[in-house]
Amino acid sequence: MILTVTLNTSIDKLYLMTGIKPETVMRVKEVHNTAGGKGLNVSRVAGKLGEEITATGFVGGFNGKYLESLVDNPLVRCAFTHVDAETRSCINCWDLSDGKSTEYLEPGAPVTGEDVARFLADFNRELAGADVVTISGSIPEGAPDEIYNDLIRSCRKAGVPVLVDTSGNRLISAVKEKPSFIKPNEDEIAQLTGRSFSGREEAVRALIELHESGIPYVVLSLGAEGALLACDMGVFHGKPPKITPRNTVGCGDSMVAGFAVGFARHLSMAETFRMALAVSAASALSLFTGDFDPADYDRLYPEVSIDKVY
Ligand code: TA6
Q1: CB 250 near ligand 1, within 6 Å
Q2: What are phi and psi of 37, to 5 degrees?
Q3: Cα distances (angstroms) measured from residue 168 to each of 165, 171, 173
Q4: CA nearest 216: which of 243, 173, 183, 172?
């Protein structure tokens, strides 16, 4: 079972419009609502890959109940901590005329210290049955800045691999606890190593430095160019075949889902990396965040190239 943590869940609203113009009144052609927040995207994709998921985090108010009703994969069990604060919405405005999208991420309503204590009790109860844990996204106001550090320490004490996909100071702080997997962007790698880098060679060196600091798997996403993975066996460049993406929002979450499933199934590094890249590329072909067509995944999986670069 993969235990996912989404402290800042969201009703993700995809607005399809044509020719978005500022300072005008725009009519939205289509609205698609999904249970969102990065960890919910991870949950949906990992569930669609066939793994049993327990989804945890905060949900609250009418939006919280609506979010749970949107979780429709029987493999994904909702084990959220219910709070009074209304779950936020995140809006992705998609312009059909040029395929460009702009996201508006609400901060998330504040949670109380009592809410946090209940979540930690819920998390530690579910951790007992977990094979892998993923921790994704931002945290709502009221949650301690170090909460991810506490969760990582609990996972390490329980001997459960923990994948962390967050950003900024939370990632910088979480790395101190040596999680099993991180997926920093270039700016975060520069913050973590204390120096900026340019070019593939310097990126490889920075990933090796982070790996050697005690993080078993360090991934740098390269977008359409795939990703670099630093691990005990060296540094690998994985690249999916060229595709024409429809919606890249949530592709990073899909990549995390692929790694989590690979870890849960004790697959080899190569199979895990291939799965992560294929499902991330397949999710870019879906209009909906945190979704993919299994036929796309099956077609892309053998086409992924993985080369050892160090
Ligand atoms: O990565 C896409 C996404 O998960 C959206 O679905 C939206 O929920 C947003 O990110 C949330 O990001 P945050 O960093 O606030 O958790």
Answers
A1: yes
A2: 100, 145
A3: 11, 6, 9
A4: 183
Closest CA to 184 of 143, 148, 227, 248: 227
Helix axes 251-264, 269-284, angle to 10 degrees: 150
Weakly modelled stretches of the chain, pLDDT under 70: none
Helices (H), ranges, the chain = 38-48, 61-70, 113-127, 147-158, 168-174, 186-193, 199-212, 251-264, 269-284, 294-300
Contact predicate 280/224, CB 8 Å: no
186/179 Cα distance (integer angstroms): 19
- pTM surpassing 0.85? yes
Q: Residue 196's pLDDT is what?
A: 85
123 C-alpha vs ligand 1 centroid, how far in Å?
Answer: 21
User: Which atom of ligand 1 is the closest one to the Cα of 10?
Assistant: 8
pLDDT on residue 197: 84
Helix (H, G, I), strand (E, B) or coil at 255: helix
Q: Which residue has the tokens 């939205």?
A: 28
With a 6 Å cutoff on the Cβ, whether 10 touches ligand 1 is yes
> pLDDT tens, 76-86?
999 999 999 99
What's the confidence (pLDDT) of residue 247?
87
